[in-house]
Amino acid sequence: MCIFCSIVNKEIPSYCIYEDDTVFAFLDINPTAKGHTLVIPKEHCISFLDCPATLRNHVFEVAQMLANRLEKQLNCDGINMLSNIHEAAGQSVEHFHVHLIPRYKGDTEII
Ligand code: 5GP
Ligand code: ZN
Question: I need a surface site. Which of 13, 26, 77, 83 has the fewest CB within 10 A?
Fold first, then answer.
């Protein structure tokens, strides 16, 4: 069973940041920085590569809205937005997700 599908179905608890009919966003359980957010399609896709275009576009639309919100609310200086594709690139959960990681001037290099 996919852990992110379980989160979408509320079988596993998460700190939900945003939800609509097709997209879900929640705080990362092991944050790189305060506010580290994951944006995912509710429908199971393995990665960016197999996510249908309309759904992929909406994931990024929500990511943009949440990144703007993070910048305002946390007053961060920047944000890393990234999606790891396959294990070799660091993907540990095989359900497409976009990371939003708040960054601050002088903080530790993470990417
Ligand atoms: P990846 O390494 O696949 O790019 O990112 C997966 C992310 O999912 C990791 O940053 C990890 O901390 C997060 N994660 C894994 N399991 C859970 C979970 O059960 N709940 C939440 N909120 N985050 C999770
Ligand atoms: Zn899934």
Answer: 13
- Rounded mean pLDDT of 67-84? 97
Return the structure tokens found at 80: 């890393």
Please compute Rg for the chain using Cα positions: 13
Q: What percent of the chain has pLDDT over 70?
A: 97
Question: Burial of 101 by CB count in 10 Å (0-12 exposed, 13-18 middle, 19+ buried)?
Answer: buried
Is 93 close to ligand 1, i.e. is its CB under 6 Å away? yes
Domains and CATH numbers, the chain: 3-103 (3.30.428.10)
Ligand 1 center–CA 92 separation, angstroms: 7
Question: Closest Cα partner for 41 from 95, 93, 92?
Answer: 95
